Amino acid sequence: MITTETEDYYRHITRIAAVLLALLGGASLFTAPPRFTAGLLCGGLLCLFNFRLLFKQVGRAFNQGSRNRAKFFIQSRYFARIALSAIIIFALISQTAINIVGLLLGLSIIMLSIVGQALYAYVAQGGDI
Fold first, then answer.
1. Domain membership flag for residue 91
2. Is 53 domain-assigned?
């Protein structure tokens, strides 16, 4: 079952990722080619969407009664989400003129926000970097 603390952490990570995406997208509007900005924004939005679906699916799986059903539910939805993401990424690369580096940076938005949050929590507890 998803706890309030988990939901708060999810919202915090999502908020950091959205702000980071907005900052990077805004900065790249003025400093980078439009292809890079398009790739960054497409990748970031896809990453945020995937993270949201993952959170909802895990929450639903933990609310189910049977452990075997929950395992099958998560695995089947995970593979479907990965396949859909692969199709979207393939279409973005092959059918549009976006920058692949921008797309990869956008797809890394959630990871960057989680690493940033972990570093912040470590320093807040008195750790040295």
1. yes
2. yes
